[in-house]
Amino acid sequence: MTLLVRDFLPADAEAWVRVRRAALPYMVTTPEGVLGDLASAHPDRRLRLLVAEQDGELIGTAQVGIAHESPKPGQGFCNPYVRPDRVGRGAGSLLLRRGEEHLADAGATEVYSWVLDEPSNRAFAEKRGYAPRRAAHFLRLDLANGQLPPLPDPPAGVGLLSGADFEDDPRPLFEADAEVTADEPSDVTAEFGDYEDWLATTWRRPGFDRALTTVVTVDGQVAAFSAAETDGRTRYWSAMTGTRRAYRGRGLAKLAKCDSLHRSRAAGFTDAYTGNDAGNGPMLAVNRWFGYEVCATEVRHVRSLG
């Protein structure tokens, strides 16, 4: 049986999604999203998509690139995934090796990789010199059969808008997203200030649902938000929920997410997913309040490139 790793082609988009959904069913992945991410990637990200192919069948994928928004230079990422019924055939090793070669050429000194918290996956990473770092949880909420908390009435001076209300000028959402992202717990920090890049990779990203994204305002100013992505059918993903520093401690993130979840259920979405750093106690508590349950855990691993 012939195994090869090559660059992703647009014609691979459907097969890419099948592999990712089989290996990581907790993410909202669509062919349009894969193609859009590749087309809109910032040049400094050096994004490369790799596929593993065996006898003409696509069985593995990898996203490889540089964390160009991090204030620390030289941080790369390589996230290989192999279809569960095709593991143990060398595809993961070959994807990882090709990814590391690309990152070394791009000037990376460290490679970060998300690894599902299962014995075989952790052993795979550690055997190849990767050391565990922070953990993160995937969480799922049954929107079709679960009971959402009722949507509270906003306090005086607090308004509820959707992302679609910012069509003419999304910059206030960009500023809120940048502030919240900078404070998100992670071992690879991000500080972004490129508005045009944000428009291309977030605001115009296929799957980003402006109508289901909720924005909380206080006295007319953006204070908190809950960004929504969907597959256009049944799956809803909370891409980011947060509050600007000056407005924290008032329950505004919970209000934003509650409104977004109610809108999504009314729109017919049945499965809500999200992800949280394992050390992000406040957001985990909010999600437990909604009824989310942990469905899987990943551990970020890192290796130095010599």
CATH-defined architecture of the largest domain = 3-Layer(aba) Sandwich
Report the β-strand fraction as a percent range.
25-35%
- CATH fourth-tier homologous superfamily of the largest domain: Gcn5-related N-acetyltransferase (GNAT)
Q: Please work out how many helical segments DSSP would assign.
A: 8
Q: Mean pLDDT, as a whole number?
A: 96
Reading off the top of the CATH hierarchy, the class of the largest domain is best stated as Alpha Beta
By secondary-structure content and strand pairing, the structural class works out as alpha+beta
Radius of gyration: 20 Å
Shape: globular
Which regions contain 5 or more consecutive residues with pLDDT less than 50? none
Order of helices and strands: EHHEEEHEHEEHHEEEHEHE
- Report the count of strand segments: 12
- End-to-end CA span: 33 Å
CATH topology of the largest domain, anyone? Aminopeptidase
Describe the main β-sheet briefly.
12 strands, mixed
Molecular structure report:
The chain is α+β, with helices and mostly antiparallel strands and 306 residues long. The chain folds into 2 domains: 3-108, Aminopeptidase, CATH 3.40.630.30; 141-297, Gcn5-related N-acetyltransferase (GNAT) (Aminopeptidase, 3-Layer(aba) Sandwich). Helix content is 30%, strand content 32%. It is built from 8 helices and 12 strands. It has helices at 13-23, 31-40, 91-105, 119-127, 171-182, 195-203, 252-266, 281-290; strands at 3-7, 48-54, 57-66, 75-82, 110-116, 131-142, 158-162, 214-218, 221-230, 235-243, 271-277, 293-304. Strands 1-2-3-4-5-12-6-11-10-9-8-7 form a 12-stranded mixed sheet, sandwiched between helices. A hairpin with a 2-residue loop joins strand 8 and strand 9. Helix 1 (13-23) crosses helix 2.
